[in-house]
Amino acid sequence: MRKTLALLCLLVLTGGIMGQTGTSDQAAHFTFGTTRFLAEKNIGPQGGRLEIQGSGSPLEGMILEIPAGALDQEVIVRVGCNDGTLSLPAGIPSGMAAVIEFGQAPSLAQPATIIVPFDAKKTGGPVQGYTINDQGGLDLLMLARLDRTAGQAAFHAFRSLTMTWVYLEM
After folding, report:
1. Burial of residue 43 (number of CB atoms within 10 Å: 0-12, 13-18, 19+)
2. pTM value?
3. Rounded CA gap, 104 and 74, in Å?
4. pLDDT tens digits for 15-42?
5. Do strands 161-167 and 92-102 pair parallel, antiparallel, or not at all (unpaired)?
6. How many domains does the structure of the chain reveal?
7. Which residues belong to the signal peptide in this entry (predicted)?
């Protein structure tokens, strides 16, 4: 019962933010800044892992895991940080926007896992991920795993994207 109630609360809160992603002045919106790429690696059909370490960026500790079989050829995978700003009608912005590129691959055969660090002290509520479209609008990115003790949230992606995450208030 508690899990059902918690899930219902999460859906209502997420809907509150997503329901306001239209064109009104209250809509959630990302204004793009400059992207600085922090890491890149050639990854092929065998899969691979890219971790942001020693960059001094807000994405420090972010991990991108690409499973074997996700790519059919070797491509350059890049992870960067965009210094744009996020305006929200509700919730607390993480202050981070990641840009993930899978080279020439239009999509992956299996999802990549994006593991992001988060500050569990910022909120008692859940962490919600969003992709950012070309117009700065937000689209829901499904949470795959949450580890409050380690301060990590994991999301799945099948394509290149720009993403952010928000601390939902409860």
Report:
1. buried
2. 0.81
3. 9
4. 444 444 444 457 889 999 999 999 999 9
5. antiparallel
6. 1
7. 1-19
